[in-house]
Amino acid sequence: LGGFAIARAVVYWRVQFITASMIGRHVPPGARRVLEYGVGQGRNLYYYPKNTGMVVGVDPDAKEDLLIQVSVAAGVPFVAKAQPCEAPNNQPDGSVDAVITTGALGASKDPAAIVREAARALKPGAPLVFVEDMSFGKGGVIDAVEALDDFERTECDDGWATLPLLPHAIGVAVKRDTDASNKGATSEAGDDFESSTGLAGKRSKKRRPR
């Protein structure tokens, strides 16, 4: 039991490190608006670039008073939306610079609904970053992301997805961008993914045909 608890603690802190790194690398500097699903107690707010314009946190159990305190401490403007993550997020089409989800997809009975809303709100070429617990039968996260044609490229870490203890879906998907001048950003997202997970070479990649 002691060894299991230690292993869980190691995985937990490693996932926190990866989450911080993924947010720091994939949320563009000066992003005007970021959408985060499953914001919880707001821990991730400390990981955002300090010049982020606004984080909109969607969580059915969002406690606005607590989250506002955390946002002030983190120095990141924040708006809480206490609603189911699967519900419409009310963001205009193509208006969000990044979407972050760290638990919402794995806990949802309909992760595809969250992914569809995320894709609708994302700007072309913008990333969906996911760090999701897949233990205890929680699955379908990667399938939900890869099944949507709105994403041109999906990167996910095979090493974390196949862990015998506390497997996680860790990755980034980039919304399809028809503007050829922005293709470099899509490639850079893949390079940043390897750096942020620390597991270069254990990556599964899916490019969608045009």
TrEMBL record:
A Pfam family recorded for this sequence: Methyltransf_11
- Recall the GO molecular function terms of this protein's record: S-adenosylmethionine-dependent methyltransferase activity
Q: What is the lineage of its organism?
A: Eukaryota, Viridiplantae, Chlorophyta, Mamiellophyceae, Mamiellales
Q: What superkingdom heads the lineage?
A: Eukaryota
Q: Where is this region: Disordered?
A: 176-210
UniProt source species: Micromonas pusilla
The name of this protein is Methyltransferase type 11 domain-containing protein
Write down the InterPro entries for this protein, in alphabetical order: Methyltransf_11, SAM-dependent_MTases_sf, Thiol_S-MT
**Domain Methyltransferase type, residue spans:** 35-130
